[in-house]
Design brief:
29% of the residues lie in helices and 23% in strands. By secondary structure, it is an alpha/beta fold. The strands form two sheets. An eight-stranded mixed sheet has the order 1-2-4-3-5-6-9-10, with helices on both faces. Strand 9, helix 4 and strand 10 form a beta-alpha-beta unit. Helix 1 crosses helix 5 and helix 2 crosses helix 3. The radius of gyration is 16 Å and the shape is globular. The N terminus is likely disordered.
């Protein structure tokens, strides 16, 4: 991986299942940190260009973060086949290692949406407690059996994770998430009246992500 001064950049990283495509959005000033933004379920058309990760990338870049949006296996020209979260977790851990080697002085955060939240929850859990990520945000995290037939194994995610969810989430029901976190009494930020895609309140959700990560950013 090599640095570039361009505002948007495409890079490739060799993963266990082949080449992985990364889209980097560079801030105008020296970055305050590096943040990976994960996209929704590839089998349902998810990609880095989906409105949610795209909006998150724009807001985080404008807040001074170097934003990295991976194309999960089989998306765009990333090689390999859908790995049901396990393969994508392996790829994410490889990306984190590469980014930490290139930007050793910058904090590194993960912001995942939907399937991307599940993948990043797995990766963050694997890194605890020896090499934890500096920040973690999970939006629309699927837990257990979901309406489309998929199953997402609940993850013992780190305590510093920010959980954001829509009250009327039809893809990853809020009731399933609350049932999972209830024994731990974990806080969940619920956006009333919105769906899985944070319709009508995505800018406010993105602002909350930026605010949450501000505590770890380089000043």
């Amino acid at each position: 991986m090599s640095a570039s001064a361009s505002r948007r950049e495409t890079r490739y990283l060799q993963g266990p299942a082949g080449r992985l495509r990364l889209t980097l959005d560079h801030p105008d000033e020296p970055p305050r940190g590096v943040v990976l933004v994960g996209h929704p379920q590839p089998l349902l058309g998810g990609s880095p260009r989906h409105p949610v990760p795209h909006a998150l990338a724009r807001v985080l870049r404008d807040a001074g973060w170097l934003v990295v949006r991976p194309s999960f296996r089989g998306v765009d020209d990333s090689e390999g086949e859908h790995g049901a979260g396990e393969g994508e977790e392996q790829d994410t851990l490889l990306m984190i290692t590469a980014l930490r080697e290139e930007y050793p002085r910058l904090p590194l955060a993960l912001v995942g949406f939907s399937f991307g939240a599940y993948v990043f929850a797995r990766a963050a859990t694997r890194l605890e407690p020896r090499q934890p990520v500096d920040g973690l945000v999970l939006m629309g995290l699927p837990v257990g059996q979901v309406p489309d037939g998929g199953y997402y194994q609940p993850q013992p995610i780190p305590d510093n994770a920010l959980l954001l969810h829509g009250e009327n989430d039809e893809r990853a029901p809020l009731t399933d998430l609350l049932q999972w976190v209830r024994p731990q009494q974990r806080p969940v930020v619920v956006f009333a009246g919105t769906d899985h895609f944070f319709k009508g309140c995505l800018p406010r959700a993105a602002a909350m992500v930026v605010e949450h990560l501000a505590a770890i950013a380089v000043r």
